[in-house]
């Protein structure tokens, strides 16, 4: 059973995915996210990178619905979402690969690391403020080298979904939880 903290985190994550804010996740939410990614990272239509983003979005939708759409109605309710979040296999097979795909898009030079500016660009379009992103970046940059490494990011994503520790760094992954 999810703790109150975990429940807040799941709902906040749901809000980030529910692009049209209608209270359910649908394919059009994920399609809209793909469009946002292309715009954020200045990816021209019909390019190899645009096709890759669209494929990632389609795979994300398939993964989300196969893991969460209990009533097979083609939408994902908050209840279905919250129940899926409690399962580590959902985190490992859906949430983490999605988060790392976005990380890779933001990592324009392919270094496996994000600068604070790359992270701000990636997070701002999903509704996370620059201030929240800077706080997240500082917490994730455990070795204080001015970059967030892919493995630091992945660890924080897992922690976000699975930890009930109120002081966990991963809690910052979707912005303020209040």
UniProtKB/TrEMBL annotation:
Q: Name one Pfam family in it.
A: EF-hand_5
The residue stretches assigned to a coiled coil in this entry are none
What Gene3D superfamilies does the record tag this protein with? Answer: EF-hand
Q: Which domain of life is it from?
A: Bacteria
**Entry-linked SMART domains:** EFh (SM00054)
Q: Name one GO molecular function term.
A: calcium ion binding
> Sorted alphabetically, which keywords does the UniProt record give?
Metal-binding, Repeat
The transmembrane residues are none
Q: What is this protein called?
A: EF-hand domain-containing protein
Recorded source organism is: Actinokineospora globicatena
**Taxonomic path:** Bacteria, Bacillati, Actinomycetota, Actinomycetes, Pseudonocardiales
